Amino acid sequence: MNLRPINTFSIAGYDPATGELGIAVASKFLGVGAVVPFAKAGVGAVATQSWANLSYGPDGLALLQEGKSPDEVIEKLTSGDEHAALRQAGIVDAKGRSATFTGSECFDWAGGIARENFAAQGNILVGEETVRQMADTFEQAPGSLAERLLAALEAGETAGGDSRGKQSAALLIVKENGSYGGYNDKYIDLRVDDHQTPVQELNRLFKLHQLYFEPTKDEDVLKIEGETEEVLKELLKQYGFLKQANPSSDELVDALKDYQMTENFDERIQEGAFIDKKVLEYMKSRD
Predict the structure, then answer these.
(1) CA-to-CA distance for 217 and 221, rounded, in angstroms?
(2) What predicted TM-score, i.e. pTM, was given to this entire model?
(3) Mean pLDDT of 169-177
(4) How far apart are alpha carbons 152 and 175 in whole angstroms?
(5) Secondary structure letter of residue 205 according to DSSP
């Protein structure tokens, strides 16, 4: 049998408040994000791992879309798989129903926990505490679905994680028209394919994603005046976007817009003499 083990820990989750579905996963395996997570807005999320059968992803989502429950999907997928004893999977649907499956031949420690709105599972782990911590953290953590999944993943790693070490991690979140420009449902798709501390690196990338793609909050809008104006002038001169010694207000605003477009801060550009506080903080951090 020419198979490669996807020995990992993952959590599939659903947020009933926003309708978001997603998966966070980490493993001692190159590019785990290309193998384990599958999700479709309004349908569900499927994590397939441990000698992963990648057909579980699309086939599982299709079965969920037909109206089958996660338990029924697991039964259907595994009953037709001659190597089901080696597989592991976690499923959550857009109603918050969940199921987890661990084949009898998965390497220890292996197991999972399925409760309302999530399924957490792992194999070749240091111990059961990894999955328990993921489950408890997901249920208790505040914030968005992405933040809760990442918190759960970090808690799982702190509790032991993959017994073989660390290499890759990924986060997939879907929601209706969630992509850049609203063209598809892929809201967040971040992957750390090969890194010494992949879970921490995934958190760093998530923060950058929020910076670049989340719209400005009302409380973060600053008027460009006083100290803010002086700091902004110096930074824009330093970065080469402002040549004038004493720029007018319009010249300063135009230079700021050029900077923001260059740095891909499209979602945070303000009209007139205003700036997003997070953009200014980013500019200062690069100083």
Answers:
(1) 7
(2) 0.91
(3) 98
(4) 20
(5) H
